[in-house]
User: Fold this.
Amino acid sequence: MIADGVLAIWCRELQSDDISMDDNFFTLGGHSVIMAKIQGAFIEELGVEVPMDQLFLNPTVASISAYIESQGTVTRQ
Assistant:
């Protein structure tokens, strides 16, 4: 499931094990440097490139996971 991979990446990059599917990236202390790391991790670990604007528009694990799934471009998990 994509959401599990996204959640694992967020937990690692935001250095928190207590992130829910609906927590807002920015409320959790996320900023542009962390977002760039997450974007890179999506490519390396999930095999999907997510445009930066979509990361801003989808600031929760649930919403960015739904976006990724809607693109149908995931090559690995």
